[in-house]
Amino acid sequence: MVKRVKEKTEAQTFEELLAGSVAAHGHLCPGQIVGVRLAILGLRLLGFEAPPTHPQLKHLIVFVEMDRCTGDAVAYVTNAKLGRRSLKFVDYGIMAATLLNLETGRAFRIISTEESRELAALYAPGEPDRRGQQLEAYKVMPDSVMFRVQEVKVNLSPFDMPGPTRRKAACMKCGQVVRDNREVRQNGSVYCRPCASGAYFTGVQEIAWPDMNWSPYANPDPTKLTDSDSPGRRVWPGEIAGKRDD
Amino acid sequence: MIKTVKVEEAVGLKLAHDITEIRPGEFKGPAFRQGHSVCEDDLCRLQRLGKNHLYVIDLEEDEIHENEAAAILAQALAGAGIVWENNPREGKIDLYAAHNGLLKVGVPALAAFNLVDEVMCATLHNHMPVKKGEKVAATRAIPLIMKRAAIERAAAIASQNGGVVAVKPLQKARAGLIITGNEVYHGLIQDSFAPILSRKVEALGSEVATVDFLPDDAEAIARTIRRHLSEGCDLLLLSGGMSVDPDDVTRHAIRQAGATEMHYGSAVLPGAMFLVAYLGEVPVLGVPACALHHPVTVLDLVLPRILAGEHIGKLDLALLGHGGLCRDCPECSYPHCPFGKGM
User: Fold this and answer.
1) Which residue is closest to B314 within chain A, CA to CA?
2) Does this complex have an ipTM over 0.95?
3) CATH fold of B174-319, please?
4) Based on the number of CB atoms within 10 Å of its own CB, is B270 exposed (0-12), middle (13-18) or buried (19 or more)?
5) What average pLDDT does the structure give for chain B?
6) Are A5 and A15 in contact (CB under 8 A)?
7) Pick from A122, A142, A148: which is nearest to B111 by CB?
């Protein structure tokens, strides 16, 4: 029986959100404060609580444009999650995040200003080092100095929406099943991205490893397949199963 | 959007901005004001001013003219005790002190404001004493027309904590003076401290309620401090005994009297051995002997701020270090000099 983890969804203070974010991320740093404040601002602009209530969470998509401490804080406060497809990582290397309300279509892209870093010493003149200045300054600096906000339109493909997998396709070269329209078509054939255009890894060599038959629970009757072992409906190489939206 | 027209084709059009005339050493100001309808007679003068083309403005919905922008900026920058007139000249608005007092400049907010490309604001130094009607700041939008959003963001930055510039009125304190030192008490030398301190207190609009002369006796000084408080003094100045000699007991006396907060030492010369303490809400200032020799010391930097209602702590005394070195000019021009202008 899978136990559902109850998330905290009642409104929290800045301090509570920061403490939770720090615990989740692993340390307190200026980026945590920036991220918590960015998320609070974005949620406020959408008319959402911080953290969002369950109904609000269903309509929220968050795009983070950096894989830095700030990104974790934004994800923590908004409760957006990669696995739920409510959190999108867009690798721009920009200290910015966009919060989109799927119900209204309104979206706000919030950019952390470079000026806020330059002004930290002025806002926290009693702190001797840069980190201390940023930690203190980012608590007192107003949003108008910390951030710039753009109202934007986000065209989210149905394949990027939360919910069940829209489509599966199998690579004609390696047989790997590819979900949600991420397959590549070349000359009428369907491939996974690694086969089509190379991958972030090289030198592929399939291996055997020690204790290959470990599992968390012993199978009481090895002759009987559990549900999860069932092959179910297979997708054959080259086949595209499910609804096609393009 | 801005369009350019040849000056000879501009008759009948309204000027988009003030046109400045500069006659070296004689005049600098607008020769023509924004909104002026150009007529035939103006053409020669415009050409003499080097204008062969003029701007015609056709504002988009999200754009704003420099004059309207300047008024929004002035409104946001002006805190308590600041007045200004919505009559921009060459896109600029001046801000004035509404009354005598201490100028307060939100230095971080001012820097944040000036980092917005489209705007600027220049001020006098933070913590300067100013007179009613004195110009303390000026602002303008830099382009002729710009996006309204930039001005709104600059205005939001300026209005944090109630505006970037403010003039705080000085409270009228009832000061108690305690002049310590065996040499004065026993009449070996004549005191000069009481008249100097009285003059400084009175120059800022406060009164000296009582003056006591005491020997270097911590118990007696502490008793007198408590008596001054019971007589309603809301500011105490103690002189003498602020140094490091065994006879210098004034600090101990202030502690004995029940100081709730005490900071000895300031980053100012003259005035390193200055002391700021608090007995509850009442500030107690320990003035070192330098005040006898130097016309301006740390006391002149701190006393107006105390009278303006500021609580002076350790950090405030430390921040005085930048700009806290008096140049000992043959003719003192304080406050029109760098002394005390660091923060």
Assistant:
1) A126
2) no
3) Molybdenum Cofactor Biosythetic Enzyme; Chain A (3.40.980)
4) buried
5) 93
6) no
7) A122
